[in-house]
């Protein structure tokens, strides 16, 4: 059971001393505490006359006098009511508690689980179960974007899997506390506070990391990340810290979903990778286009279009990208790099067509096609970590730190040691750092030889 970003996670809550229990808030008697988060508490309330059950989210006392936190609560209520969509949680009350002056909102009481909790028991999910949920999510985003609202913090924790009376599963988008409204449908918004990052690292789009304007395409990137986790039980980028996740996001495309789940339809694989394109202009233009494409995949109506001319699918391994020229080479790399504690991505067969969406994300300027023997040693393979370690509800970081980390890793790669092969059997290859000393010595020897030659000629005369 969850409302907003306050999620009940089977914790024992001490409620006997809570002064709000038994009180009446807007004709709703507060019956129990059902969830607690970093900034708020969520209570179950029941209308005294008609018996309607609701959720009441109250800002914690420590934040009651924080203008930014109060504004987030107000923004959430206003934004939801500006959209009015069945797949978005409804908020129909706002006020302040009389004694403590803590702001609160009254909203739908949802039965079910947040998607992040749901995935712990159900991921990886079957495409036939994933597609209807993503369709509802995109429908909600389409309605939000139509009135200029960009969520900016979409993640499984902000998507609720609702249990309907008929036994079917539906979704509700929750927590619009970080949402911003553009001046027009499909418009962009500037960062709230230049120099800070707001969002969840695993699902933030690269443009959010850079602190540039965000657009509806930013939300589509997050949808791609959510779909990726639903289908593979992996995050697109996994690392032990948020800063490393952001650094990876700026440098590498994620491993293709089909490498984790070989049976996954290639069109659906390409659809996900399109939404995870690092360049916003390469993603599908809006939620409606993404929804139409997803429905065609679900209906089996994709025709297997040929790839874009010149584009060749690439294998994303744990240490880099290998153009799909030699699948034997790719299999070897994947196998060798997957011997650590992280899971091994599976090989992908080549007997099927290439998705029309996959082609847009296969050739990136950073993916240089070179022979394996000339490739410098790569960093150690990534390890798989629990998503909870990098899924903080919201982070505020300096974009300069992220860019500095990216530049640092790039410089480390350019200065990586070069292994010199030794032909003599039984000898161990020696690793030395690249240096210009050898070149200088050779040039010096050549100059000395030239001077010696001149001296000999003069002596003959």
Automatic annotation (TrEMBL):
Keywords: ATP-binding, Kinase, Membrane, Nucleotide-binding, Transferase, Transmembrane, Transmembrane helix. The keyword Cell cycle does not apply. Residues 28-295 form the Protein kinase domain. ATP binds at residue 57. The keyword S-adenosyl-L-methionine does not apply. It holds the Pfam family Pkinase. Gene3D superfamilies: Phosphorylase Kinase, domain 1 (3.30.200.20), Transferase(Phosphotransferase) domain 1 (1.10.510.10). The chain crosses the membrane at residues 437-458. GO terms for molecular function: ATP binding; protein serine/threonine kinase activity. It comes from Archangium gephyra. InterPro entries: Kinase-like_dom_sf, Prot_kinase_dom, Protein_kinase_ATP_BS, Ser/Thr_kinase_AS. This is Protein kinase domain-containing protein.
